Amino acid sequence: MADAKNTKKCQATVFDMDKQFLCRRATLDGHPWCKRHNEERIKLYVGYKARQKKLEQFDERRICSNTATIRACKSLEQLRAWYDGLKDKLVLYNRCIDARAMHTERFYGNDMDWGHQTFWDRLTEERDDIKELIAYVEFRANELILKDALAWVEERRTLMTKREEVHGGCSDDGSSDNSDAEARPR
After folding, report:
1. Mind spelling out the 3-state secondary structure of the chain?
2. Rounded to an integer, what distance in angstroms lies between the CA atom of residue 21 and that of residue 86?
3. Under a CB-based contact definition with an 8 Å cutoff, are residues 85 and 63 in contact?
4. Is residue 180 pLDDT above 80, yes or no?
5. Distances from the Cα of 184 to the Cαs of 52, 149, 172, 176, 178, in angstroms?
6. pLDDT at 139 > cutoff 60
7. pLDDT above 70 (res 73)
8. Which of 82, 93, 158, 183 has the fewest Cβ atoms within 10 Å of its own Cβ atom?
9. How far apart are CA 179 and CA 132, in angstroms?
10. How wide is the angle at C-alpha 58 spanned by C-alphas 144 and 141, nearest 5°?
11. Cα-flanking dihedrals φ and ψ of residue 176, to 5°?
12. Are 52 and 90 in contact (CB under 8 A)?
């Protein structure tokens, strides 16, 4: 039987309401965690690996990552499709990063190796790139929407100009009415 003084204590972080502390139950042989937390660690690990796999399997054809192509796009339908794809990919990045964060915080604290930290940093940078692409798509879509919305204004302005040329600046009843001419934008 192991000596009680030499028994290692579980190193899993326990979160209880607004407090956090180490579990301190006896560990399994060869593990830094108790049985319950070792099982939880494995489930969280499998979970973040599954999320990572979904991210890796994302169909890149659903999005456009070229900002020049986005800026040149004239199809609101295409922009919507890219937007939907980018939002789906952003959700995958968030889930992947959040799952890794939960696993790491719970079982390793701030003690990450260089490779793990580098991978995490890369995921965060790629997620930021997706957010930037979403902003480009939203901006271009707004440009197209405004262009369509303002087209009727230009059409109306052209019609009014032609009408004034035909009537010589007179209203339909033949009187000269320029009272609102200065108020109208040209």
Report:
1. CCCHHHCCECCCEEEECCEEEECCCECCCCCCCCHHHHHHHHHHHHHHHHHHHHHHCCCHHHCCCCHHHHHHCCCHHHHHHHHHHHHHHHHHHHHHHHHHHHHHHHHCCCCCCHHHHHHHHHHHHHHHHHHHHHHHHHHHHHHHHHHHHHHHHHHHHHHHHHHHHHHCCECCCCCECCCCCCCCCC
2. 38
3. yes
4. no
5. 58, 19, 18, 16, 10
6. yes
7. yes
8. 183
9. 49
10. 5
11. -90, 115
12. no
Name the percent of the chain lying above pLDDT 70: 84
| Residue 110 pLDDT | 63
Distances from the Cα of 94 to the Cα of 2, 14, 99, angstroms: 44, 23, 8
| % of the chain at pLDDT higher than 90 | 47
pLDDT for the residue numbered 151: 77
The structure's pTM equals 0.73
Tokens of 69: 């192509």
Examine the pLDDT at 169 and tell me if it is beyond 70. Answer: no
How confident is the model over 58-71, as a mean pLDDT? Answer: 98
CA distance 158 to 1: 96
The length of the chain is: 186
Other CB atoms within 10 Å distance of the CB of residue 105: 13
Longest dimension (CA), the chain: 113
Task: Give the integer Cα–Cα distance in Å for 33 and 11.
Answer: 6
pLDDT top residue among 170 and 114: 114
